[in-house]
Amino acid sequence: xxxxxxxxxSSRLAKLKSQPVVLGIDNLGKxxxxxxxxxxxxxxxxxxxxxxxxxxxxIGPSGCGKSSLIRILAGLEDATSGQMLLDGKxxxxxxxxxxxxxxxxxxxxxLTVLKNVMFGLKMGGMGFDQARSEALQWIDLVGLxxxxxxxxxxxxxxxxxxxxxxxxxxxxxxxxxxxxxxxxLDAQTRAQMQAYLLQIWQNVNLTVLFITHDLDEAIYLxxxxxxxxxxxxxxxxxxxxxxxxxxxxxxxxxEQFTSEPFLATKRRIEGLIHKRVVPTMVEPLPMxxxxxxxxxxx
Amino acid sequence: xxxxxxxxxxxxxxxxxGLGAAAAAPLTAADALxxxxxxxxxxxxxxIAIQKGWYKEAGVDVEFVWMEYVPSMEAFxxxxxxxxxxxxxxxxxxxxxxxxxxxxxxxxxxxxxxxIVAKAGITSIKDLKGKKIGLELGFVEHLMLLKxxxxxxxxxxxxxxxxxxxxxxxxxxxxxxxxxxxxxQPNSGAALKSVPGSKAIYTSKDVPGLIYDVVAVSTESLxxxxxxxxxxxxxxPKIVAFIQDPKTKDEAVKIMAxxxxxxxxxxxxxxxxxxxxxxxxxxxxxMPTEGLDSVLGSSKVANAFxxxxxxxxxxxxxxxxxxxxxxxxxx
Amino acid sequence: xxxxxxxxxxxxSPRRQTLLTVxxxxxPLLVWCVISYVPFVWxxxxxxxxxxxxxFLAKDMMIDRGMxxxxxxxxxxxxxxxxxxxxxNPVFLPPPHAVGRALYTAFxxxxxxxxxxxxxxxxxxxxxxxxxxxxxxxxxGVPIGVLCGTFDFFAKLTEPFVxxxxxxxxxxxxxxxxxxxxxxxxxxxxxxxxxxxxxxVLVVANTTRQTDRALLEAAQTLGAKGxxxxxxxVLPGILPNLYNDLRILxxxxxxxxxxxxxxxxxxxxxxxxxxxxxxxxxxNVFAGIxxxxxxxxxxxxxxxxxxxxxxxxxxxxxxxxxxxxxxxxGLFRRKKVAV
Lengths: 298, 331, 339
Fold this sequence. Notes:
The structure holds three protein chains of three kinds.
Chain A: H1 6-18, E1 21-33, E2 39-51, E3 55-59, H2 66-74, E4 81-86, E5 89-91, E6 98-101, H3 113-123, H4 128-141, H5 157-170, E7 175-179, H6 187-203, E8 208-212, H7 215-221, E9 224-229, E10 239-245, H8 260-274, H9 290-297
Parallel strand pairs in A: 3-8, 3-9, 6-7, 7-8
Antiparallel strand pairs in A: 1-2, 1-4, 4-5, 9-10
Chain B: H1 2-17, H2 20-23, E1 33-37, H3 41-44, H4 46-52, H5 54-57, E2 62-66, H6 69-77, E3 83-87, H7 88-96, E4 101-110, E5 114-118, E6 132-135, H8 140-151, E7 160-163, H9 169-175, E8 180-184, H10 187-194, E9 199-203, E10 212-218, H11 219-224, H12 226-244, H13 249-260, H14 264-268, E11 274-276, H15 279-285, H16 295-308, H17 325-328
Chain C: H1 14-37, E1 45-50, E2 62-64, H2 65-77, E3 84-88, H3 96-108, H4 119-150, H5 152-165, H6 174-181, H7 185-209, H8 213-221, H9 226-260, H10 268-278, H11 282-310, H12 319-336
Antiparallel strand pairs in C: 1-2, 1-3
Helix pairs in contact in C: 3-11, 4-5, 4-7, 4-9, 4-10, 5-7, 6-7, 7-9, 9-11, 10-11, 11-12
């Protein structure tokens, strides 16, 4: 394990925080109407900022409102209170400046890999030839040049998600929003994709807001982690608990998973997430005496 | 090709938008006389003159359109043809619905081709008491059944009528759902052929003149193109002679059989059930007498039947639907 | 391990699939043959060959078996010679060989009547009626359906009325269509149109509604808006399903043909069937029905193969015939494709 002095990590984080804010989240809240006329608050008073070149992950248990949060940031839903600021200016609605990668790949099945990546460029009014050559560069970046003329149904899950990333990046977004993008992949592919993503992030001038419910993933990828909390008896809605700096050096390596700073961060987040979980009464399971079953089988 | 295709598309679009009435151009004098005819021996006979080119010889341009019976009446009522072949009773029905027309030609009377066919074991009208009879209500078979019941001292109340489309009567009798059916050829013959032991217990031969088959011309067309219609009428006696002359009879049957797509031998059997009218018979039948010997008398019976059965409620004058002048002018 | 014939939601081997497909046609044919040729199966009637001493029976008459036996018993009791006959089926069910012969001769027999179309000309005429009626319905119906499926405004504006009118029997408009479109092909095309158009609008609207919402959202985050969403996401997204909808609706068009062709001037294959039915020539009726069935089946199969060629992204193998088509249009396609 590489022993990185603590000061260099904290100075890096300090430098990062001095960068201009790309995405400002100001008291954002989301309330849904219920069929009986009352309302449910999914998320309330969430405020934090994502700085330029930052990789930020958002983590929280189910029901904490992280899906609502990213859908609002992507412009797919409207916030019911507060606002979002892109480069300091209030912004809403879907827009290629806030690129999005979904868990379900969402590639257009009728378009080849190349045409999928060209889609946003063409929508932005770019001519065919230029769009094609730019798209090919992005496809090259995610390592799929050989598959440019292939339809999505012929690709594996990991390859599809790489195409989706290339497609979002082709629009040169100010920030890339990622909604549990590796949630549907198997463990090995997922690890590969995390490595790929960090490489891309390193090579491209990119700011990322990444949602996940996987602690290891959140820590491994992020500079900072926003921990959201699920509703509790005290706070009956999803809310921001804390923003945690990740005390790990870059570039990240798999060895860091077992390093003490990593494990300490993990324990800290676990403590935050589980802190308010009230044990509930569970029906006792019926006891089955294995010997009896065994007797029957024999 | 493309242009006609586009026009078809346009027609459909217009029809659906309900603007079609404007597109329906009236028939003009320059066109051929359009006559809709259908599957009945008395009318299939027109095919002889068509195939022989007799109308051209007579100097009249006639376009015959082959249709099903009910659609032919619809086309006539919609003004898409100048004339239609119908029974005198149905001519009144169209008249009550607002289409005024004149019968200018009598083709024939049904002489056995309209039948009440009963299943095995029923041999007379009297046996029908309390039985189920399938026929098309309000059509000529219904009228004929009432006449048959009347002749046997019975009324409609003595039987149960089931409304069955004439085309479906053979199957209906075969299924055993009814005890008898009323139908005209070829359906009546089909019923006899396909239902074992069935028998025609009453036919139009028992009430000759109940059903006259005529050519009804729209009043407008007759008014504006009477000379052409006179030429049209003048061809008919030639057709009748061709059918009745033993020397040409076989050829006549062959032509008629071809029209309806059946073997000539099979079709020949239908002819005796139709009594073709030559000029002398037509002149007599056009006289304004009472009783079934004249079209007028027959139409009055049909009118009374139609009113009694609420086929229509309009008061119409059967005499206004006849124009004997063209037949009377024939030699 | 031996392959199982019954495995839940598992495909059978191609050989077994072919075997079953062939069987699906052979089995009904076999049943038909048994009913027609094995004298003790069904055959509820007796065709009289010799009336014997009966005054009631006649040669070639078809009579119920029980009645024939009763009549014969009576005749024999009177000391007269017994009637003879053989068991037969009603005329409504012709035997396969008669239908086969009818199918064969129907195309080879010139029309008896001068100026009458050959059977293949009648068939062609029917096909043009279907084509125009259905094409008109699709050209007008698909855009309306897509609009209804995309914008609630159009759905609420048109769908309740379309839903109401689609229950009206198209044939009932026959007389009106004659009044509007004349007596030739117009009213027939109009009936096919009315029969398919309203169903088509609703089916297409529903298919459009099944557009994957996630794809729409993805497109929005990539900068697609309004018209572009419809043209570049909704339309291509539903295209394969739309194509299948049209295939199914084309079948509906055929069911309306049989009534459409009896409106106005009689014509086409269904007039042939109707006319032959009136004169109880059921071998010809069956031949006509089988012709329609075959045309339907063949068009549907060709369209299915074409569908695989047209929509390669669905990942269904185009098959041998499809590959040939693909090879033919290969160059042409490559140039045409655009985002």
